[in-house]
Structure formats: structure tokens, C-alpha cells
Amino acid sequence: MQVLNFDTIVIGSGLAGLAAAYHASKHGTVAILSKSQLDTSNSYYAQGGIAGAITDEDSPELHYHDTVVAGRGLCEKEAVQLLVTEGRDRILELIELGMQFDKKDGEYVLGLEGGHSKRRILHAGGDATGKALTCFLLQIVKEQPTISSFEYTAATKLLIDEGQCTGVQAIDFISGKSMIVTAKASILATGGLSRLFSRTTNPHTATGDGIALAYDAGAELADMEFIQFHPSALSLKDKDAFLISEAVRGEGAWLLNTNGERFMKEVHPLAELAPRDIVAFSIYRQMQKLKSPHIYLSMKHMDPEKTKTRFSTIYNKLKEYGYDMTTDLLPIAPAAHYMVGGIKTDLNGETNISGLFACGEVASTGVMGANRLASNSLLECLVFGKRASEQAAKRKAATHQQIIQGGLSNDPKNEQAFLQIKNKIADLMSDKVGIVRNGKQLQETIIELEAMSKQLPSKTTDYNELKTKQILQICLLITRSALLREESRGGHIREDYQHESPDFRLHIIQQKNKEPLFIPIQT
Predict the structure, then answer these.
(1) Alpha carbons 222 and 19: distance in angstroms, whole number
(2) What angle do CA 428, 471, 213 make, to 5 degrees?
(3) C-alpha to C-alpha distances, 276 to 38, 230, 335, nearest whole angstrom
(4) Which residue of 244, 330, 352, 496 has the fewest CB atoms within a 10 Å radius of its CB?
């Protein structure tokens, strides 16, 4: 088996991974492992933008306040403070490197999104910020001589020796061969897991790989029950959910039920610009009340030319579906979008395992609380990607001998069976662990997932078998945590516990072979 050695390994190539790799390259050699192409990630498809208090009318204090309010009492204040202060510096650093955000008459065009009290959302290419930002940073990463990239290479196991992460085992999908990559530190930046739900805005790669790898290695996970459902995803029969950015509502779009009534004004003072959890749940209630599979998003009252310019990517994509967003009512419904919880880290992105770090959507840094504030995700990638890489650079190489594990095969004949069970699990998660949950259905889901797990072979020799095990394990972690949280808070809504409880102002921690822990908020 091929063995390669670097100073730092970064697993994942979204914005968090690229930021971590760029900053790590200043301290030594870096390997980036991506199970697909380097430009396939949630970051790449982010439409809204990146939040930052960069004007005199705004301040980090206001950004902090908005983030904590959206987080419903579960944000760790020190982490949020770092996000809003260092985030501003990271944005200005990107601009200095040459990143072009949209301007008008020499001034940055700032958008407004749900939960924000000020216009502070920078965007690029109108509604293609994620693409512009990741492509910009990817080009810089490719120019660094100390960074080596491995596309179509999936990490299959974290190597833990005497309590220290010494590298990863991986499989190269092109050659079919396994490999070992060793390093002083490994940074998980694998993104989210919302592709585990049948209705989702995420790309096919977002299946929670980093969560599964970390859990298997003994890392602590936090708040796995909090999945954010994006309120406005196109809802068409037998079609994937297409995300329609929150920025559309930020510019004035209305939400209408199927009777043509605007309902959000009665729900929240910010109406369509209320935090995402409130908007998504309100849409769900309208769908239930009127027995409809969707509601409508309307921009008919807005300036059509401005809409076409500001949201050119969305406009053109909707044209492919047969809709004109300036004149048609768009059928929308919530879809699984963002993993709010994840691998528990400290303020430098380090896990409870020495030498193992996490940043971006895969991590639970304490920033998001129970509900992510819109456009804070790209900012978190930049802030904690840098912090993780700098802390990783301080790690020393393991002095003990590396243990080489047996590799996995990747038999294409097993792929169809994997996809069948994956789709079955995704339907189950959407049906019973979706935007609104109840104890009975959560218990039924746990029983069904455990039964499927028992049918798998005890020893895994094939990559598709590993993926099946990982997906079942992650879904069990989400569902068990959801069952334990007997309240409704942020992105976690229970029919049988409809109110927020002060007894649950805490994090639920899960770790392999240990009972769940309830940890109070630190600040």
C-alpha cells in the first residue's frame, strides 16, 4: 500500500478546506483529499453571500447580537465573538488578495437576509457568491507549491495511535487502490450531511463522511439533532429541490399560501425576513393547514430587470424548469440544507483527539447554536479554517510507529445495492426525522435503522459497504439525539414538546461506546 507523508492533511475541498489548506501551506506541506472534484461542495453552490460588518453603519456587536438571537440560546458567546471580529478581518484579507465582491458606484452592494438587522451580506456574481469565492481561493491554493491535491480520493479511516491522529487511510477511485497518508495533524472539512434526506438542496457528496470518520475514531459529536431546513427550495414532483436564495426574500419577495395570502406578517415582526427556523416552520404549518405540498414565492411586485440582474443564476435555472421568476408564482417547500451540529471542537478547531481538527459545516464550534444565521456559514469557514490550520501547525509528529491497516476495495457491482438502501434511508429520514418530529416516529426510525444495521456484514471490505454503515450510523446519531431533546428549539421542532424548555439549554454530546452527555452552555 502506498504511504505518503505531509505536515498537514485537509479532508474536503469546500471553502473551509481551501482556507485551511491555504493557511497551512505557510507552515509546511499539505495534502488535500477530495472524494470528488475539488470544486464540488456545498460552498460552491452557496447563493446568498458572506456576512460581515464592514461598514460604519454596522458593527461586530450588532452582528454578534443577530447571531446569538438566531441561535436560540445555544450559541457559545466566545465563539460568536471570534466569528464576527475575525470574520471581518478574513473578508478584508480576501479583498486584499484580489477577491472581487459586487460593487455599485465604487461601493460594495450589501444584501439583507433573514435574521440580520443590517445590510451586511457581501455577494459576488449576484447570486453566485459560493462559486466565485471557492473558485478564487481554489486558484490561490493551486498556486501554492507546498500543496498537493488528490481528487476522487475518499478518506475511509482516521488512523489513531496512542490517542493521537497520525493520518488517514484512503481509497483512490480512479486506480481503485488504497493508500495511507500520514501527517502531524489532520483537518476534517468534509461539509454537511443533508443528502441523507430525500428532499435536500445539497450536492451528492454531502453524506456526512467526516462525521462518521470522527465518530468511529472516538471524537465527540455535539447537537446532531439540529438540521436546518431551508425555507425556499423549488418543489416540483420527481425533481431535486433547487435552492432559491434567502437573498431573494431579502430584496422583497413575498411568501404566499395556496390561497394567495401573505402569512408571515402575522407570525413575526420581520415577516419574510424572520430567522430561517421560524420561516420554515411557518411554511410547514401552511402546507399542513391547506393540505398542499408547497406554498408560493412571489416576486411579481418587484422590479423585473433588477431581479434578473441580481439573481441571474437563479433566473436562468428556473427558466430551465419552465418558470419566469419575475412573473410566475414559484412553488416552494422547505428542504434539508445545513448541518448545524457536528464534530465538537474548541475555539481552534481541535477535537478531543490530539492532532484531529474540524472546521466548516462538519464542525460544531459553538457559533451556530440551535439555528444558523443566514450567510454566517462561509464566514465560519474562513475564520475557523485559519484557526485550525495555525493550531495544527504547532503539532509534533508522532514518535511511535505507524500502524498500516488493510485497505478497501471498490467493486462497482455493489454500487446499485448501496444506492437502493441509501434512498430507502433518505425517504425514512425525510418522513420521520424531517422538519417536524415526534417521539413515536423517532422511536420507530431508530428500530428500523438498527434492524438495517444488523443485516450488514460485521467486517467491511468494500467501500460501498462502508458507506452504508456510515450512513446508518449517522442517521441513528441524528435520530437518537432528536429523541433526547424533549423541546422545540431552533431547527429542532417536536409536535409532542412544542415549547422551548430552559432545562434543555444545553448541548447533547455523543461519543462511540459511551452514553450521551448533557453539557450546559459554557457562557
Answers:
(1) 23
(2) 155
(3) 29, 7, 12
(4) 496
Distance CA(276)–CA(273), nearest Å, equals: 8
Given the candidates 3.30.70.260, 3.90.700.10, 3.40.50.300, 3.80.10.10, the CATH classification of the domain at 235-336 is: 3.90.700.10
pTM beyond cutoff 0.85 = yes
Q: Are 6 and 181 in contact (CB under 8 A)?
A: yes
Contact (Cβ atoms closer than 8 angstroms) between residue 402 and residue 307:
no
> What's the distance, CA 333 to chain centroid?
19
Q: What is the per-residue pLDDT across 250-287, written as a single tens digit (0 to 9) for each?
A: 999 999 999 999 999 999 999 999 988 999 999 999 99
Name the burial class of residue 193, with classes exposed (0-12), middle (13-18) and buried (19+) by CB atoms within 10 angstroms of its CB: buried
Report how far residue 516's alpha carbon sits from residue 422's, in angstroms, rounded to the nearest whole number.
26
CB 372 within 8 A of CB 51: no
Classify residue 494 by its DSSP letter.
B
The fold of 410-508 is: Methane Monooxygenase Hydroxylase; Chain G, domain 1 (1.20.58)
Cα separation, 41 vs 381, whole angstroms: 12
List the domain boundaries for the chain.
235-336, 410-508
b/e sequence 311-326, b meaning 16+ C-beta within 10 Å: bebbbebbeeeebebb
Indicate the length of the chain as a whole number: 523
CB of 487 closer than 8 Å to CB of 516: no
Nearest to 233 by CA among 257, 265, 277, 202: 202
pLDDT at 28: 97
Parts of the chain with a pLDDT under 50:
none
What are residue 108's DSSP bridge partners? 103
Shortest CA distance to 510 belongs to which of 483, 488, 490?
A: 483
Q: Report the alpha-carbon distance of residue 65 to residue 79 in Å, rounded.
A: 13
Quick one: DSSP state of residue 239?
A: S
Q: Residue 135 forms beta bridges with which residues? A: none
Q: How far is CA 512 from its chain centroid?
A: 22
Q: Give me the active site residues, please.
A: 276
Tens-place pLDDT, residues 381-393: 999 999 999 999 9
Nearest CA to 213 out of 155, 161, 151 is that of 155
Burial of 412 (0-12, 13-18, 19+ CB in 10 A): exposed
Which neighbouring-strand residues pair with 6? none
Burial track 339-378 (b if 16+ CB lie within 10 A, e otherwise): bbbbbbbebbbbbbbbbbbbbbbbbbbbbbbbbbbbbbbb
Instruction: Give the per-residue pLDDT at 404.
Output: 64
